[in-house]
Amino acid sequence: MVVSKMNKDAQMRAAINQKLIETGERERLKELLRAKLIECGWKDQLKAHCKEVIKEKGLEHVTVDDLVAEITPKGRALVPDSVKKELLQRIRTFLAQHASL
Amino acid sequence: MKMEEMSLSGLDNSKLEAIAQEIYADLVEDSCLGFCFEVHRAVKCGYFFLDDTDPDSMKDFEIVDQPGLDIFGQVFNQWKSKECVCPNCSRSIAASRFAPHLEKCLGMGRNSSRIANRRIANSNSMNKSESDQEDNDDINDNDWSYGSEKKDWELKVTLPFILLSYTAKKRKSDKLWYLPFQNPNSPRRSKSLKHKNGFSVCTSASNTLPLLFSSSGELSNSDPFKYNNSTGISYETLGPEELRSLLTTLIFLFQQCGVISEHTKKMCTRSLRCPQHTDEQRRAVRIYFLGPSAVLPEVESSLDNDSFDMTDSQALISRLQWDGSSDLSPSDSGSSKTSENQGWGLGTNSSESRKTKKKKSHLSLVGTASGLGSNKKKKPKPPAPPTPSIYDDIN
Glycyl lysine isopeptide (Lys-Gly) (interchain with G-Cter in SUMO2): where is this cross-link (chain A)? Predict the structure, then answer.
């Protein structure tokens, strides 16, 4: 029972992701988020943080994994509420449109 | 597909919300990942720290926000008070007006520029202390020398100006013609030019030389020199070189084709019957230089005194010889040409003048009349001679 439910959830998620990509909504959302983040200074804040990290580790020894580990939590936290809300709203509308099918 | 629909429709709101959050987190992580790749690439390529500046230089290039200064901290209305000195007339002109002034002053515009130039020269000569004489001379030399190497436009402007006085005497009105010749400080202006016949013509040392002559035909013509004087009036006020080049051009037009080539901008030196140019072209050139009354020389001899006749031209030739013999360098082609004809010119001089006496179209100059009395003396002409005195002196 539990396994079948998990299986069903996974299937559902996969189906939704498929739909997101097929309709191109994912690309649109990504582009919107990027624009919003640049607009609100998220990128500049992260860049400043990056500089600290890089200076700490040394220019030659920085790897992508290091950067991702350091930056991603910070990046998630720094997203402004307004941007988050707008994006969630768009995702919900998308889901509502396609859940009714 | 059917299952999918079922599953989607069967979800409750909390599940949908969870999925939405998941998608959002996914997207943010994507962005972060993209950013990390970007930074990493910049670091490895070495352009990540390019836009870094130290705080000192940041302070140096801070934007200035003060009244009266621009963002760089410079005073921005400085230019308003700036004045430029004109290299031509050495007046100081506001910077904003300098370009239009220079255009006029240097003669790039229309003919008005030359008038302006003349006016400036006149005013300068009125109070000589203003500018040094060398400058003035240079300006005036440019104005009044038309050697063969000079450009066409100089000839175009100056020649008709002088010839105006010449052709004007053809009209039978009693008008007085003022020709405000300027060449203020030129030393040759103060020279007393000696005529071949022992008659000295007085040229004025004054700076503005108003030429006054009348075209009345009722003047007494007993004096054989009078005609010479009358034809020579406008030329005697010119310097010897100027006179020579002018008259050389005139003679040229009576002896040679003279049509100005479109390519070389030079006058044709072939004979009047030159096959390369038509009579029409020759006529156009003569009208261009001598005014509408001028016609081709070969036709002229048969025409009456309304045209530019041969006696006049010969009188001119004689004047040229007088001039050429004065103090000119023989190397010049114009003077050498005149010296060839000198004997003939002298011989015909008096006879020609006698002929023209009968035509009753003469000019006379005030200055020359007074010059008759005071022979060989430098005597400045009155700047504006009273009209009645002309007739008194002459009669």
Answer: 74
Q: What angle do CA B166, B285, B314 make, to 5 degrees?
A: 45
Cross-chain residue pair B33–A101, CB shorter than 8 Å = no
Cβ contacts (< 8 Å) between B7 and chain A: which residues?
A: 8, 11-12, 15
Q: What topology does CATH give the domain A24-100?
A: Serum Albumin; Chain A, Domain 1 (1.10.246)
Q: Where are the domains of chain A?
A: 24-100
Q: Angle at Cα B385 formed by Cα B384 and Cα B388, nearest 5°?
A: 140
User: Which residues, numbered 22 to 51 in chain B, qualify as contacts with chain A under a Cβ-Cβ cut-off of 8 Å?
Assistant: 22-25, 27-37, 39-40, 43, 48-49
Cβ contact B160:B172 at 8 Å: no
How crowded is the C-beta side of A83, counted as CA atoms within 13 Å?
24
Smallest Cβ–Cβ distance between A99 and the set B16, B28, B31 belongs to B16
Give the HSE-up count for residue A75: Cα atoms under 13 Å, Cβ half-sphere.
27
- Give, for all 395 residues of chain B, the pLDDT tens digit: 444 444 455 557 788 888 899 999 999 999 999 999 999 999 889 888 887 777 777 777 888 888 877 888 777 666 566 788 888 888 888 888 888 888 888 776 665 556 666 666 777 665 544 444 444 444 444 444 444 444 444 444 444 444 444 444 444 444 444 334 444 444 443 333 334 443 333 333 333 333 333 333 333 344 444 344 444 444 445 566 666 666 666 666 667 777 777 777 777 777 777 777 888 887 887 777 776 665 555 444 444 444 444 444 455 445 544 544 444 444 444 444 444 444 443 444 444 444 444 444 444 444 444 444 444 444 444 444 444 444 454 44
Q: What gap in Å lies between CA B376 and CA B327, rounded to an integer?
A: 17
Q: B19 vs A95: CB contact, 8 Å cut-off?
A: yes
Q: Do A33 and B33 touch (CB under 8 A)?
A: no
Q: Is A4 on the interface with B (CB under 8 A)?
A: no
Q: Would the CB atoms of B40 and A62 count as touching at under 8 Å?
A: yes
Q: Parallel, antiparallel, or unpaired: how do β-strands B208-214 and B193-194 relate?
A: unpaired
- With contacts defined as CB-CB under 8 Å, which chain A residues touch B25? 76
